[in-house]
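Researcher: Hi, I'm a grad student and pretty new to this. My advisor asked me to get structures for two proteins we've been looking at. I'm not sure of the right format, so I'll just paste the first sequence and hope you can take it from there.
Model: That works fine. Here's the first sequence with its C-alpha cells right after it:
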Amino acid sequence: LAAWCSVVLAYFRYHKLHQLDVLEAQESQLFNNKRIQRKLSTEAIQVVLEDLRKKGNLEWIDKNKTRCLIMWRRPEEWGKLVYQWVSKNGMTNSVFTLYELSNGDDTEGEEFHGLEEWLLIRALQALQSEHKAEDRKST
C-alpha cells in the first residue's frame, strides 16, 4: 500500500497534476499498464486513495467521492518551502501578493513557483496557524 501511495504521489508530482477523476482512474496510465494488460481494480484504487486521505495528501472535491485533489506535498510542506525562501532572502515582515509568490520573477526556480492558487492559499494558511504569516486583505 505504501508503494502504491508513493507511485501515485510521484506520478502527480512529475506531471504537476492535482486532480483525479476516480471514474477515469482505472483507465489512466497510472493504474492501467496496457503493455502487460494489467490494471488495478476499482476497489484497490479506493484503498490507495483512502490511505492518501488519511496521510493528508488527498481531499475529496465532492460528497460522492468521484473527484479528488491529490497533494504530492501537503500544504504544511509547501508553507515550509515558502517560509524558507522568505527567510533565506531576508524578506520576513514583507508583504507579498499570491501572484508574486507563485509567478513572480523572484521565485522562479523555486519549487513553489507556478503552484496553483488554491494550494498556495492553503500553504499560507498553514503558516498563519504557526504565526509565520498574516493575511492582509486589501481594503
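Researcher: Oh nice, that was easy. Here's the second one.
Model: And its structure:
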Amino acid sequence: MASSTKRRRVVVEFYTNLTVLEGNVVTSTINGVELVFDHIRLGEILKIPINGLVEYVWMDDENCLLTSKFSHGRVSTRARKFEIVHKGILPRGHKKHEAFFRDMGIAYALENMEPIDCPSLMIKHMVRIADPQPSSHQLVYENLISIVFKEFDVSLGEGRGLTRADMLTRSSFAECGLLVEPDQVHIASPRAFGPVASLLRDLKTARDQVVVLQAKNASLLAKLQKQLVKQQIDNNSRMDRVLQLLSSSSSSPKPSP
C-alpha cells in the first residue's frame, strides 16, 4: 500500500509538470529530476516497437453510433479488442464503455494485424491527460511510467505506510455524527487476496487440522482407557478363579496312608 501511494504521488507530479514540445518531446520534473523523452526514447525504455499507426484524432471524433457492437457481447473478439484499447492503449476515466472513433481505428488495426506505434499514441494521449479542458481523465499509464521513472533514477521517496490510525472505525463515524444505530456498523471481512490473507488462510487451515487431530486423540484416549478398564476387569476375574482353585485345593481332605 505504501509503495502504491508513493508511486501515485510521483505520477501526479509528473502530469502536473508535464509539457510537450514540438516534435512530441515530453518534458517534466519530479523531485528536481528532469525527464525528457520522445516516442523513440519511450519505445526504447519500454521495449516496444515504434513503427505503425500513429493517428490519434479521426474526423467526427464524437461518440460512435456503432457503440453497441463494442459495448455488448463482451466475449466477442471486437469487445476484447475494445477492452485492450480503452484499458491499455488509450485508457480514460470517463465514458469507459463507449467507443469513440479513435478507439475503433486502433481496434480495426488490431483486427487486421496492423502495427501500432504505441509510444507515439501514448505521448499524444498524455497531452490530453494533462489538459483539463477536453474532459476529465484518470492518471493513466501508471505502471508503464514507473519504468520510465526508474530509467531516469527518479526516487519515490520514503513515504509512509498505513497504520491503525488511518482506519475508519466505529468511533470515526460517531465523531462525524454518522452513526445512528449500533447495527449500522458491520464488521469488515479480512482481505481475500495478498500475502497476509494467504498467511491467515494457512493459519486457519493449520488450526482446523489441530482441532481434528485433538478430536482424534481424545477419541483414541477414550478407547484406550476403556480397553484398560476391561483388561483390568479380565485380569481380576482370572485372579479370582486362580484363588478359588487354590482355596479348594487346600481345603480338600488328604487321602489316608
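Researcher: Is there anything I should tell my advisor about the second?
Model: You could mention this: DSSP finds nine helices and three strands in the chain.
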